[in-house]
């Protein structure tokens, strides 16, 4: 099994991430969570790694706040887009681009970080756990890991409520896969077990798209995307709804020692 490279799908992938209503929900939930855990740092300038960050949506937002960011991605096309956007930004951004797999990042060359982002990456990796364990070596004591992963439990539930029972019986293996459907979704309980094993203290748990993907085709006349976004933010942290998120966002803090 090989990890996914999005060179051939860079434009479509970037558009699907943030150029749609579901992308807006994703961005809003993640940014709220990040702001919550970064507030205690005040004006302190942090060293941040965006591992598998594509064109650097959050890299650019964090660098605009004055933080030092390293953006790593396996896709040269994604990094080319990031470079163009960074150059076009009216404010200079302290972002270093690293082309290569996140598994190649190492302590000697790249040092340690106060915050590591790994968003919508591990579900494309053949060995997610080992990749994350490598990233933890780059995390400073008391540093934060922001991990968003494609949720196997929600993938199954969505298929069930859609009546796609054969798809579930086949364990999601079909002859013709949608190219942007993650190949290695993770169950929430498994990721929680990993955080416990690594002694990461969970600071945030949020479901991303706990409502959007389950909306009925027939909606009331007064329905609005803004109302949907507000409800997504409101219910995304409710424990009963977190496991329904198409993606789940965990932020864990490394032990001090």
What keyword list fits this structure?
7 strands; 10 helices; 7-stranded mixed beta sheet
Q: Specify the overall morphology.
A: globular
Determine the mean pLDDT: 92
* Main sheet makeup: 7 strands, mixed
Q: Using only CA atoms, what is the Rg? A: 18 Å
Separation, N- and C-terminal Cα atoms: 36 Å
Q: Residue ranges: pLDDT <50 for 5 or more in a row?
A: none
Kindly state the number of beta strands. 7
Family: Belongs to the class I-like SAM-binding methyltransferase superfamily. CmoM family.
Enzyme class: transferase
Function: Catalyzes the methylation of 5-carboxymethoxyuridine (cmo5U) to form 5-methoxycarbonylmethoxyuridine (mcmo5U) at position 34 in tRNAs.
Domain Methyltransferase type: 49-146
Short overview:
The chain is an alpha/beta fold. The protein is built from ten helices and seven strands. 38% of the residues lie in helices and 19% in strands.
What can you see in these coordinates?
Helices cover 38% and strands 19% of the residues. Helix 2 runs parallel beside helix 10 (225-235). The radius of gyration is 18 Å and the shape is globular. 37% of the residues are buried. Strands 3-2-1-4-5-7-6 form a seven-stranded mixed beta sheet, sandwiched between helices. It is of the alpha/beta class.
Task: Tell me the layout of helices and strands.
Blueprint: H1 10-18, H2 21-38, E1 47-51, H3 57-64, E2 68-73, H4 76-88, E3 95-99, H5 107-110, E4 113-119, H6 128-136, E5 139-150, H7 152-161, H8 165-169, H9 188-197, E6 201-208, H10 225-235, E7 247-253
Parallel strand pairs: 1-2, 1-4, 2-3, 4-5
Antiparallel strand pairs: 5-7, 6-7
Helix pairs in contact: 2-10
């Amino acid at each position: 099994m090989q990890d996914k490279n999005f060179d051939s799908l860079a434009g479509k992938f970037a558009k699907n991430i943030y150029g749609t209503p579901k992308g807006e929900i994703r961005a809003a939930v993640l940014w709220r969570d990040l702001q919550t855990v970064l507030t205690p740092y005040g004006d302190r300038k942090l060293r941040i790694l965006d591992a598998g960050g594509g064109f650097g949506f959050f890299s650019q937002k964090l660098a605009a706040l004055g933080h030092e960011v390293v953006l790593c991605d396996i896709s040269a096309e994604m990094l080319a887009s990031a470079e163009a956007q960074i150059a076009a930004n009216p404010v200079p951004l302290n972002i270093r681009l690293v082309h290569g797999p996140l598994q190649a990042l190492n302590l000697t060359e790249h040092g340690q970080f106060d915050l590591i982002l790994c968003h919508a990456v591990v579900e494309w990796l053949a060995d997610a756990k080992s990749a994350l364990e490598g990233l933890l070596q780059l995390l400073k004591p008391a540093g934060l890991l922001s991990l968003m992963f494609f949720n196997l439990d929600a993938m199954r539930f969505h298929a069930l409520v859609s009546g796609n029972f054969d798809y579930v019986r086949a364990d999601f293996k079909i002859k013709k896969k949608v190219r942007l459907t993650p190949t290695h979704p993770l169950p929430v309980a498994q990721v929680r077990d990993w955080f416990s094993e690594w002694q990461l203290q969970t600071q945030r748990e949020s479901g991303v798209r706990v409502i959007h993907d389950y909306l009925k085709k027939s909606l009331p006349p007064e329905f609005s995307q803004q109302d949907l976004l507000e409800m997504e933010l409101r219910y995304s942290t409710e424990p009963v709804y977190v496991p329904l998120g198409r993606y789940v966002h965990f932020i864990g803090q490394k032990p001090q020692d």
